[in-house]
Specification:
Number of strands: 5
CATH topology: Rossmann fold
CATH architecture: 3-Layer(aba) Sandwich
Shape: globular
Distance between the termini: 9 Å
Radius of gyration: 16 Å
Order of helices and strands: EHEHHEHHEHHEH
Number of helices: 8
CATH superfamily: P-loop containing nucleotide triphosphate hydrolases
Oligomer: single chain
Structural class: alpha/beta
Length: 204
C-alpha cells in the first residue's frame, strides 16, 4: 500500500510522518524531494527566487522518477507499507501555482499529464488542512513556496485535486493542537491500512 501525507508547509505533515515511523516500524518511510542528487538539485532551486518554474518542474519530475524506481516500486513489490512525506499531489499543487503566471495553459492538467505516463498513484492520501496564513506563520516563510499569497494558490489546487478524487483523500483538521492532529492521523492510517488489508493487495 502506498500512503502519502500532503498539505501546505507548516501543516504539521512532517511531524505526523515522524510519529507514524514509531507506530509502523516495519514500513518503508520516504519523502519528496528525496535525499538523492536529484533531490539536492530541487532543494537548490527552492532558494532561487528567479528559478525558471518550468525548469524547476522538471527537476521535481526527475526526482520523482528516481524515487519510484529506487524506493517506492521495490518496496511495494516486497509487500511493504510505503509512507511518503509529499508525493505527486505536492507537485500538482505547488508547481501548478508556480506556473500560474506563465504562458502555459492549464498547468495543473499539464503536470498531471506528464506524470500519468509513468507514476504510481497513491492508494490513500492524508491531507492536513490548514489555512495559508497559519501555514506561512508556522513555516516561517523561509523560501518562496512558504509565503501566504502563494500558499493560497496551492491550497486552491489541493482542493481541486480532492474534488476530483474524494475517495482517495482523508482530510485532517491541522489547525488543532499537535496532539489532536497526530491522534487523528494515526487513527486514519490505522483504518486505511486495515481496509487495504481486507481488499485488493495488488501493488500496481
Amino acid at each position: 500500500m502506498l500512503l502519502t501525507l500532503e498539505g501546505l508547509d507548516g501543516s504539521g505533515k512532517t511531524t505526523a510522518w515522524e510519529a507514524l515511523r514509531h507506530a509502523y516500524p516495519d514500513a518503508t518511510f520516504t519523502r519528496e524531494p528525496t535525499d538523492s542528487w536529484y533531490g539536492d538539485a530541487v532543494y537548490r532551486s527552492l532558494g532561487e527566487d528567479d528559478a525558471d518554474p518550468l525548469a524547476e518542474l522538471f527537476l521535481y519530475v526527475a526526482d520523482h522518477a528516481d524515487h519510484l524506481s529506487r524506493v517506492v516500486r521495490p518496496a511495494l513489490a516486497d509487500g511493504d507499507l510505503v509512507v511518503s512525506d509529499r508525493y505527486t499531489d505536492s507537485r500538482y499543487a505547488y508547481q501548478a501555482a508556480s506556473l500560474a503566471d506563465t504562458d502555459l495553459q492549464r498547468p495543473l492538467e499539464y503536470i498531471r499529464g506528464i506524470h500519468g505516463a509513468f507514476t504510481r498513484e497513491p492508494d490513500a492520501t492524508i491531507y492536513l488542512d490548514v489555512d495559508p496564513e497559519t501555514a506561512a506563520a508556522r513555516a516561517g516563510a523561509t523560501d518562496k513556496f512558504e509565503r501566504a499569497s502563494f500558499l493560497a494558490e496551492v491550497q486552491s489546487n489541493y482542493e481541486r485535486l480532492i474534488d476530483a478524487e474524494p475517495e482517495r483523500f482523508v482530510r485532517v483538521d491541522a489547525a488543532r493542537s499537535p496532539e489532536e492532529v497526530l491522534d487523528a492521523v494515526e487513527d486514519a492510517v490505522e483504518r486505511l491500512v486495515e481496509a487495504h488489508g481486507d481488499g485488493d493487495s495488488d501493488d500496481g
